Amino acid sequence: MNSMEAARYKAHSKNNMGKEETVIEHVQRVAELAEAFTAAWDSAWEGRTAGLLHDLGKYGKMFQNRLNGSKEKVDHSTPGARAVLRHYGSHGIAAALAIQGHHGGLQSANPNVLKASLRMDKPAKDGRLYASTDVAGLITCYEGDGGVWPPVSESRMASQGQARLYEAAMLDARMLFSALVDADYLATEAHFNEGPDGYRVRDSGPALEPELGLQLLNAYLCGVRDQAIRWGVAVEMLALRDDLMQACLEAASLSPGLFTLTAPTGSGKTLAMMGFALKHALVHGLRRIVVVLPYLSIIDQSAQVYEHVFADMPPGYVLEDHSLAGEPGKDEDTTRLAAQNWDAPIIMTTTVRFFESLFASRPTDCRKLHRLARAVIMFDEAQTMPVSLMVPTLATLSHLQSDYSASVLFSTATQPALEAAYGRAEEKKRRSVAGWRPKEVVGDELRLFDRARRVRVEWPEKTTDWDTLADIIAAQRQALVIVNLRRHAADLFCRVQKRAPEGTYHLSTNMCPAHRLQVLAEVKTRLREGLPCRLISTQCVEAGVDIDFPVVWRALAPLDAIAQAAGRCNREGKLAAGIVHVFRPPDEPILYPSNDYEHAAVTLLGMLKGRPALDLLDPNVVQEYFRTYYEVDKPERRIAKGLDEAITALDFVATAEKYRWIDGAGANVLVPYASQEDIFERLADQVRIKGISAKWLREARALAVGVRGYGARSLLDICEEVKTHNGESSGWYILLQESAYDVYIGLKLDEAPSDSHYLV
Predict the structure, then answer these.
(1) What CATH number should be reported for the domain holding residue 122?
(2) Max alpha carbon distance in the chain (Å)?
(3) Are 120 and 668 in contact (CB under 8 A)?
(4) Amino acid 118: pLDDT
């Protein structure tokens, strides 16, 4: 075949400059990127192989017809996967999987299932036609085009044969898949965005520069300390925060591994964690920092802190990636593009997005995973992990650390006994050779919890009815009440407000972020000025909210939730001791937001029967609580139903379906919050005319209320649905019935004509 004939095989149609891209041009560009990505874990040959062979099917006549105007749907992925598996045998399984799934998603790594799926003796999925079933002919075209086969080397996935553990094998496949998908997307984007300067892949995000980051962090800490002294924060508390930071900086010199950071609420963990990560990255040459948080409210506060700390760093240094940070639209910008593949030095994301991506099968979800190699990954409020997901999650994190040179840190005031989640010794061996044996960052000699005793906890002897509690709260000058359900918060607020209208506030996720921030600003001002202030809230105030009440009332809940509530009491140590009253609400069919939450609360109640004066700040008590909590007989609580079977079958699709942090679909409702009603109207008009864009989503986030499990009645009774550019459901709605958003309570679905009920 001469060069003129080779040039006829096109990978992509004409771009803005009128240029077509040939198959060999495209695969070589993808291979170069994928090789660089996989070099981070010494698997450069696999990345190059997957890149070179991923579009082998595009040499087929059916695909070339497609580019020339044919309407037939074509599968061009399977031929390349089949060729790679034939050529490399077991060492080609990971590359074959990545190639097979680079458009449709990962399927199954079971060798027999994989071989059967690549036979091409049956029609392809969704009625697609194979680009060609003549794989030998495609290889001839590829080699005639100058294509090569990289020399075989050891594949990490096949390195231990059948002994390779399930979670490890699946992680190997996902990491290579991620590198291929990102390389393919970047190369394709570069072709279609080509300008007068020629083909150029978009610039990478800024470098971490940990030494400069540490200097900026230290400067910020000095300013925070000076401000704390002016506000009268206790000297003992300042010393405790200094000691925690120093402990984190010293521990950062330890070899990369698994770590825990156990420190009391209010001790400065947000900044201390970052100090550890920057110093650890500096010492060991790690590439980026990923901060994983359970709630958007914590991300909001932490992101503001980090933006101040790193204000002098280049744009895009700190990147948020979560459901309200913006999704791809017509107006994609640099920030959103970076979020698609986590091309930034510091990433902030939610636990749901992080872990569901880590167990995903789809290209868009897995695309960012290769960035986790040689990263510092930190989980704040680590105790929030569902019990039924712990075993495979910890196994995967263990492999991510040992096989991909990442460091993993779990930070919380109530460190869960995660080793207990592995259960029996034989299960540990089946999941992870190394097991889960993290190093604690903070030494016992610092006595952080003893030094942080700022509250006295009073445990319940009997239930308390709502009217009695309302009388007590209304009579107090300053008090915080935290309940477990949004409807409880709304009901108690109404009772207290009737008794004490001045200075009584409500806070829950029924309120949009702009509304919540306004309430918190007013509450902080009243607390600072010594004015009457009573706040009735859901758990949304417990984590990531810097607030300080002299008295806190907390409905019976998991021990870690009560510890978080105690962190909002006498937070700055200005009193000899604050008081945390734990109370038991009246019995009713639903008292808790989930089964896990209820099980945890019942576990604590059982401990209280033997010790009515339980010490909330005793780490030994915390460990006993979690060990008891994890001691479950029901298999479905040990590991989610069907998940273990999916993992042991190496079935990526089923694993992604079964690995779920949150059950049920959710939606976002754009609401007309009174103080920003003009913004609401503008956003509503914009999305109706132009559709959803990343810019719109970032602005709409402040006026969004998330709803989940809202019952049979459709949101369309009171809302207008927002469609995507393709006319599909976007998961966004515009509230049309203004009375359904209350100035105090927030979104009230029961204002609609039909009854509804939903939980937190």
Answers:
(1) 1.10.3210
(2) 91
(3) no
(4) 94
